[in-house]
Structures are given as C-alpha cells and as structure tokens.
Design a protein that fits this description.
The protein has helices at residues 35-46, 64-75, 88-95, 115-125, 147-158, 178-182, 194-203, 209-219, 223-231, 233-251, 254-264, 268-289, 302-311, 314-332, 337-347; strands at 6-10, 16-20, 53-57, 101-104, 135-139, 164-170, 185-188. By secondary structure, the protein is an alpha/beta fold. The strands form two sheets. A five-stranded parallel β-sheet has the order 4-5-6-3-7, sandwiched between helices. The two termini are 35 Å apart.
Amino acid sequence: MVEGNPSQIRNPSAKIINMTQYDTFSANWPIVGHTWAIDQLRRALQFERTRHAYLITGPASIGKTTLAWTLATALNCQGDTPPCGHCRSCKLMASGSHSDVMVVESEHVGATLKIEQIRELQHSLALRPYEGRFKVAILRRFHEANPAAQNALLKTLEEPSSQVVLILTAEHSDVLLPTIVSRCQVLNLRPLALEETATALRDTWHVEPDQATLLARLSGGRIGWAIRSIDDTAELELRHESVNVLEQAVTGTRYERFQLAEDLAKDKPTLLTVLDIWQTYWRDVLLTVTGSQTPLVNIDHEGAISQIATAITPEVAQRALEATRRTIIQLGQNANTRLCIEVLLLDYPFAKPSR
C-alpha cells in the first residue's frame, strides 16, 4: 500500500474520513505487488467488462484500500490508460473531492458499521452521477457491518444499477453473508514475498537495507504496515510490547492471564492489532517446531520462539494459531471482547521460554 499525504473524503453521513493521496507507479496503478489483481481489473476496464460489485479481502494493511481507491479512480478516468492521473476526474480523486465517489466505514477500527449508514448510502446511490460515468461506493472494513447493515446492502447488490459500482473491503469473506460474497467479484490479496517487500522499501522509500529487511519480516508481507513503520516508531513499539505480553502470558499463571485479558479488553481497536501480531508469532513457533526453513517474522525474538517450540508439539502450535484467527473473526462479529480474549488466553499452551 502506498502512503502519502492525507486527503479528506466525505461520506454520505457527512463524516470526514482520512484517505491517502498516492504517487504514480508503473502502469499508473500505485500498488506494490498484487499484479494478478491489477491485471484482472485492467483487462476488465480495457474491454468494458467491469462488475457492479467487488470484494477485496486480505489482512489489515495489505493494500485493500489502496486497490479500492485506485479502481475507483480508474472507473471514472477520462484518459486513455486509466487511471491516467492527469485528467480532471483523477485530479479530483487525488484531492479527495470527487462528487461521485463515497467512502463508508465504521467510526473506528473494531466499531460497527450500521444500517443507517447503508441507508444513507443507498439514498446517494439512487441519484445519477454528477460528472463521472459511475457512482462509486467504497465500503471499508465491511466485516464490521452488523447483520442488519449487510442485509440492507444486499438489496442494492440484488438490483444493481448500471451506473453504480460497489467496492467492499474486508479481512475475511467468511464473516459476510454468502449472498453478498456470491454477488461480488472477489479479489483475495495475499501477503507479499519478503524480498518483494524489502525491495520496495529500499528502492521506493530509500530505507537502509538492514532496516528494510527487518521491516519486511515484521510486516509479514503487509506493505502498508511496513511503510507506516518507516517514520512511525509507535508501530514498532506496539509490536515489541505485544510480543513481550504474549511471551509473558505463555509463562504466566491462569490468574495472570485473566488479568491480562481484562487489560486488553479495554481497547478493542488496539487489541485487534495485537492479535494480528500474535498470529505472526504463532506462525513463527509453528515454523520452528516443524523444522521449516521459511524465514521468521519476529526474528529478534528467535530465542524465545525456539524455547517455546521445544516445549510444545506442532499440533499445539497449530491450535494456538487457529485460535488466534478465530478470535479475530469473533471480535469482528461483535462478540464479547473480554470473554473472547479470556478463552483465547486459556487456549494457549503453558510453556516457559528462556531468555
């Protein structure tokens, strides 16, 4: 995901949303990796075979919003090779002021996208495009939509207008109504390769080689996270603290785990980020316990990871990884936060890594 200066986009609820103004990459698509998805979309634009709805899935900070925003730009581009970046429509998109493009999302990460927001969006989509070919709605983090909001959107998907394109982003498609997924073209973005991420950081953002390699590993192929971490030390500090907390939990008592659950449940948005980091940690443990030669993400905690790996079986490591992912999904479905994290911490094995 390409980062830049924040633009302001107004959604139908008149809420200001921070978006991103991107630089131009090769073929006018400001995307690092995901070439297969770009090729599909470019061909659809070239032959005028665009779908009325897209669902872009993948982990947080992998580039879903960047791809959605670029597709929205390309759909109304007036140039020969969309998105050209130079026509009036592209310039309006770059400034965040295109009247035919709307962004709808929950109030913050971990909050709920509500039916009232979908109804306001539907009212806006019922109007003809003001100056573009399409009215485009980007529904970010749609996995946070409650059942009523999902059902409300289904009506728009079932009766699509030829002048409306919906672009949904979600971390997982399995938390959405199957009828919604079936009516969208699904683009499942996967983490970038280690070297691809490191090369982009070195060549485009001029990061020192050693730091680029470290950020590439820590990001787990999530280029957006890696880019933010170049200047934002808070990302790295949160990641370091999250790993330390997990290692303390693995060595701690049940009482200590309950105390940890109480603390973590107080800040759901941060908790979701912590769980993403814990996923990478248990992946590293699983790789180590199975003797895989795949590079670790949390390379600076390799010693502790090795110690945990010697104390558990591959099956236990796999269960811990699956339990973490399951908890992320449950929290996205608005399950009780504290209960979810308590169950997760009790599912984790008890092992004592040596420093």
